[in-house]
Write a structure and sequence with these properties.
The protein is an alpha/beta fold. The chain contains 9 helices and 11 strands.
Length: 293
């Protein structure tokens, strides 16, 4: 996983991050009216002389980013679509990837990218509860710890994302970047409320919505047995052609509600099909973010 991540990331490493948060630095940002408790050392005496009003100077803080990556490990992530491709560097190969393995590789690439920039990265694996919580660190040796956790994690269990997002929002005290990698097969309203909790805590949020191509197209044309990957023993044999229209309409509403809700909260939402090589998906995503910064 480390070799794949390194191979994918080489070639599109952006520069250091400029924090959107105001702190102490040498680059001026703006004036703000003085309030009791402000450090008088930050008073702009020239403005005081001109206007007889007290204003403090705020600055852009040049800091390294602190990122926490949340990877969905619920049973539904085990599904591997027949069109999924990956395996070698760049995600081009014959071996099919499940949604979870696809998410693993996306997370590994992002970890490598961030740590290479000397940013701090943490990891949360989750299903109905937090499996593992690894706090963010910026050391190069931390990469091996994160990759080891990813490699040892197996998907299973039911989906219960929203309550865990709330829990993580309370645990990650220092504001930074939160990256969610999941199929988001949960109640859209509850998910959006939980994502809003991150925004309320002043985090920047990225959502990578990973679905198999068959989930997006429901391209099944004959009598098929569908098995529940989260609850053992639940299965149903149906003619998928009779359900395709209703299924696609419901999925479209779910995705649209997530897209609109994320947009309203200024959460960066990206839908990804496992049919697309993860290297291409990651390059397109990073290119789009770079164009908007």
């Amino acid at each position: 996983m480390e070799l794949i991540a390194r191979g994918v990331v080489e070639g599109f490493v952006p520069g250091k991050h400029r924090s959107p948060y105001k702190g102490f630095s040498v680059e001026f940002a703006e004036h703000r009216q003085y309030v009791p408790g402000d450090d008088i050392a930050d008073l702009d005496w020239r403005v005081l002389a001109r206007s007889d009003r007290y204003y403090v100077k705020e600055y852009i803080e040049e800091t390294n980013l602190r990122a926490t990556i949340l990877v969905d490990c619920s049973g539904s992530m085990k599904y591997a679509g027949k069109q999924a491709t990956a395996g070698d560097v760049g995600g081009r190969g014959p071996a099919p990837l499940s949604k979870f393995h696809y998410a693993q590789h996306l997370a590994a690439c992002l970890m490598y990218l961030l740590i290479r920039q000397q940013d701090a990265v943490g990891l949360v694996t989750l299903d109905t509860e937090i499996r593992r919580y690894v706090p963010a660190r910026a050391r190069a040796s931390h990469m091996r710890i994160l990759l080891s956790e990813l490699a040892q994690t197996e998907p299973g269990g039911e989906t219960r994302l929203a309550p865990i997002f709330h829990d993580v929002a309370e645990r990650v005290h220092r504001r930074g970047l939160v990256i969610v990698i999941s199929d988001l097969l949960d109640d859209a309203g509850a998910l959006l409320e939980a994502l809003h909790h991150f925004r309320y805590r002043k985090h920047e949020v990225i959502v990578l919505h990973v679905l198999a191509e068959e989930e997006l197209t429901f391209d099944f044309n004959r009598l098929t047995e569908f098995r529940d990957l989260e609850v053992a023993g639940h299965h149903l044999q149906i003619d998928p052609r009779s359900l395709r229209k209703a299924y696609l309409e419901r999925l479209s509403r779910h995705i649209r509600r997530l897209e609109v809700g994320c947009g309203q909260m200024r959460v960066d939402y990206t839908g990804i099909s496992t049919a697309k090589p993860f290297a291409d998906a990651l390059a397109a995503f990073l290119g789009r973010r770079r164009a908007h910064t």
